[in-house]
Amino acid sequence: MAFRQAGITEEWIRTRLDGPAHIKAEHQEFLINMRVAEHNNPDGAPFAMAGNHVMVYGAYASAAARNGAPEQARRRRPASSSAAAQPMSSAADPITRSGDPAFRGGFPSQANTGPFLPEVWAQLDGIDLVEEFKQRVDTFVGIPQVIRGDYIRAQDVALSHFVHAPTERDATRAGKLFLLLSRMLLTRTESRGDAGAKLLRERVLRFQRGEWVDLIREAAPHRAPRQRSARPELDAEAKLLKAVEQVRNGDLSRAASTLTASPVAPGNADTLSKLTDPERRPVDSARPLTDDDLTSEPQERLLLDQSKFLETVRSAKRGVAPGRCGTRQEHLRALLENERTADNLYYFASQLARGRISEDLRAGLAVASLTALRKTDEAGRPTDDIRGIATGITIRRLTARTIAQQYADKVLDYTSPFQFALSTRAGVDCVALLCRLLTEEDDSRVISSLDGIGAYDHVYRSAFFAELRADPELSAMLPFVRLWYGRQSHYTWTDENGTDHRISQGEGVEQGDPLAPLLFSLAIHRALRNAHDFLEDGESMFAFLDDVYTIASRDRAAVITDHVAKEIEKWAGVKPKLGKFALWSRQGGSEPPGVDALLRGQPRPATPLWKGDLDPAHNGLVILGAHIGRPEFVERVLQERLSHQQRLLDGITSLPDLQAAWLLLLYCAVPRANHLLRSLPPDEVAAYASAHDAKIWSTFLQIVGYNDWEDDPNVARARAIAFLPVIHGGLGLRSSELIAPAAYWAAWADILPTISSRCSTWIETVLTELERGDSRWPSIAQARAASAALPEAHFRFKPEWRRLAAGERPPAIPETLADEPGIWPHGWQFYASSAIITLHKESVVFPSLDDATKARVRSQAGPEAGAFLRASPVCDHTKVDNDHFNIFLRRRARLPLSGGARQCPGFRLCQSYLDCYGDHLAACPSTGLLKRRGTAFERVYRPLWKESGVRETPQPFVKDLLSDADPTDLRKSDFEIRGCALGRGLPVVCDMCMGSALHSDGTPYAGASNVDGATIDRLTHRKRVTEYPDLATSPQIEYLVLACEEGGRWGPDQHRLLRSLVRTKVASIHPLLRRRASLAYTRRWWGILSIGAQTVAADCILGRDSPVPTPTTVMPLASVLPWLDVGTEPSRMP
Fold first, then answer.
1. Kind plus residue range of the DSSP H or E element containing 992
2. Pairing of β 975-978 and β 382-392
3. Residue 674 phi, psi dihedral angles, 5° rounding
4. How far apart, in whole angstroms, are the C-alpha atoms of residue 583 and residue 629?
5. Distance from first CA to last CA of the chain, Å, rounded?
6. Phi then psi for 504, rounded to 5 degrees?
7. Whole-model pTM?
8. Span 615-667, pLDDT tens digits
9. How many other β-carbons are positioned within 10 Å of the β-carbon of residue 566?
10. Which pLDDT tens digit goes with each residue over 218-245?
11. Residue 335 in contact with residue 310, Cβ under 8 Å?
12. Could you say which DSSP state residue 512 is in?
């Protein structure tokens, strides 16, 4: 009746979508309402479909339909970057697409205004982005599913309009819409559930009606004051819950920072005073930019790398503050799901990278919030000093990060040989080792370190502009850099009462800008070059961003330090912290001459500048986290480092969620020793490494609740297993004490090419010492000992020192090991560590195990067998409750489970008493749980079928699968799938089975204790030869046995199937994202399968059925892509 009253029939819809008629406003509104109400009215499908056209194409749905709906839209890409280099007014500018045949006939009656009439777009002329962004908005972190597609389509409208804009005014309007859409559609609602969903749909409806200004004005300002709890314990509890939530969002590094990082500075007048102090943050430019800085054209045009940009969007961290506009990185990642929209997003970024945007857009994109963080001392304790971190608009940050990646190698080459940051391989290790070697060669040499006052905030902008102009290739960055640093910067800081304060800055770079390290390196380059000319033979200078070190004789140490400091102040504008100079020599003795001159008349600080005559516990220096000095000094500082690391471990043991605690232990706590293992000789780091391992193991026992273990014989065995890599059947905790020689050798192997290129006159001396059997340099002697500790049988391709210095690189890490937790994925360390670990497993761990434990460890080993250990709990299929995860971890470490001995529940058939490891219940058929386990295991695969898009038929009869089968045959297979590339057009028939490597009495099956995959072979043989020989040999189907050992090992058919499902899934994804998407889906789906398998196995021990979640929605591509980044690499810095 409503349709008839509106004068709308199916015939009416057909003629409007097929013919030239304009759709009246009242009919547009009716159709859009039908589109919004579609989920409650299945009978209105054709009308909802028409409403969808109206929402996308406005009044000209007919023209849109004739030229293709969005789902059938023709594929196309923005023009190449070289074409986009033309000026905006040029007729050849790709921003004007009227001549492109691919777009002819799109919206002829709208004069290139897109799906909205010109008067709708004209509303944006009165929007001042700077004024709008003064109002903070709180947007959803993820796009609500109810409007996800609508948001992506709306952004496609904005970006497409930008791509095709014939004038700068049209491009500005489109850019404004792009920046404001998250405010308009994704501002958080107070209502939840159906009421919240209704409000979101109404926003979409109003957007399609063109009520843009109203939506912008109604975006709720987020001005909640930063209130702190009066009870510290509540703050601590909130911190733990926040960390768990961050783990569930897949952001482990941020969760670890929540437990340990510097607190936010109080939002009071004292903090404001520090932020606005001109001595800390210059308001005006001390050295104004020249006309050439502001107007010169680049000698080359910046060609933004599309592959790097899309990867930057894909890998952007989750949960990061969105900046003042409200657009989050998660929102832009969602745009990658549509190839055309992803291309248009890249086009916007490429224009931004060239500085080809209007002043209105530039001013809005320059807006940034400022967060004040308290700095920490060397022991990790908060100080009264603060650091202001700027959070810019998301698309600007992503573009800047791409440019930084693209030009890092060039800037590194340009700033050589002084600068070791940016892309230098093992740059941190290199600086520390060079300082160590030079002072070992001559123990009278003095190392001096310089520290600047607010280096990033004070550095002259004119300094990096001059360097950019001086190099043709680097000059391509000028237009982009000029957008933000060509005038005074302004930030907004919000105090504890919610009041905004404007903070201005006339020099320096924004801390938080991805380009800041690169620009800073350029800014101090001239100063370092001039200072280097002052050096004499035998004197050296190294820089790692703003950390500068000089090495010279006692007589010249202070003179050189003073000269370098003056050059940096003169040419870069960074004044030295007079009380923070530090000088040290191995020879010790009295203070070198000229130290007083460094203070420039200031009184001596409480901390002595000269460390060489201090007591042994304070006699040394810390260089980029590496410790050089007396043994007592190194021991003291390492002990402080252990105390600092204990803060994270204490936080982990306090977490209420075991899965979150485990992931933080594995990915954040275990690798924290790696930097020290690489930078300190094994004999110096041995005690620290041993203590680190002990703390890791103690923390593990605490989180699984295994108490009173001092005299337990199970613990030593469990520790040996737990410290094995995951692929070897362990927990991946990895022993720092064991791999210390491998890490130190690998550091040498990685930095020798850098020493060869940066110190060409000295490399021969180093190589000669490395090849001598009795080197007088302790570090080189330790390097030789570390090399000798690497077993040749497991590292046959280990190169000689000279081949390493010549630049020989290791092979790529095998894909089956790329996800192995805890490994250092760069350089030679992976192979060196693997050699030592493999030898340790074969010669120490396995000989000490009984046959049952050997069988169990082999059952836990192999590719993806431990995928559940690294799976991110971002969805119901990968979240595990504490009861189950406790069993997962204890079973894998071979620790006794909680609870005492009791009789098997299948007592009528089985009179056995249960063992403490759960082995009997995992293998006993009398309980009936094993049969139900198989049924539950089948349900584990449902998310894969739904997400991959294949068609699955559960429990097909064999007689229905084979044309020559006996019609009375009542056997069933587990499922049949179609649409999978594996079958080459044939149906793929799968049978699943899970088995234990141990009998119910705890003894291993034949071969299980000494052959990897023996249980898989037994299960596969039973299926293929005994139960389904006709399916296995039939040419009519592709038959797979999806065998899984109860410990976690998977059969070869399972790997074949998953690879095929991934290929099917990613075939339609943007070509530049396809490989990363393939890796992400692989990791996600193995996580789902592994957790599902371990859950159903644990439920046999718990004596209950497995409630496997039923998939209701498909996880969007944008939510899957970050799976590649779950976990953190071992840190370069402590």
1. strand 988-995
2. unpaired
3. -60, -40
4. 11
5. 71
6. -110, 155
7. 0.87
8. 999 999 999 989 999 999 999 999 999 998 999 999 999 999 999 999 999 99
9. 16
10. 886 654 444 444 444 447 888 899 999 9
11. no
12. T
